[in-house]
Amino acid sequence: LGYHKKVVDHYENPRNVGSLDRNAKNVGTGLVGAPACGDVMKLQVEVDENGKIVDARFKTFGCGSAIASSSLATEWVKGKTVDEALQIKNTDIAKELCLPPVKLHCSMLAEDAIKAALADYKLKQDPNKEEPEK
Fold this sequence. Notes:
3 strands, 42% helix, metal-binding, iron-sulfur cluster binding, Iron-sulfur cluster assembly enzyme ISCU
């Protein structure tokens, strides 16, 4: 299975690898995994006082498509508001990276990681509010 050049680029030159302070009030952390394929993705966002994402970091254990999806996700969320970042869909990530159908779960994982990180951030902003029903 040949990877598209965009996947290879993100795999060989991943953007925003690393971690942010998970205890900081303005940092949201999302940890998601797909046990079926063994991919695990940690995505973190740092949000400023205006609700804009000023930084994003990821660590992913998985295939090239999973790493590329999380790398692209961190690039896309930067500069967006929390609400704008929630509009990022796995189909957009898959389309941008030209993922084959067998690798679509990687883009779904990236979307889930964004949502999980932003949910964690929102929970830290209003700790009295209960976790929403899924």
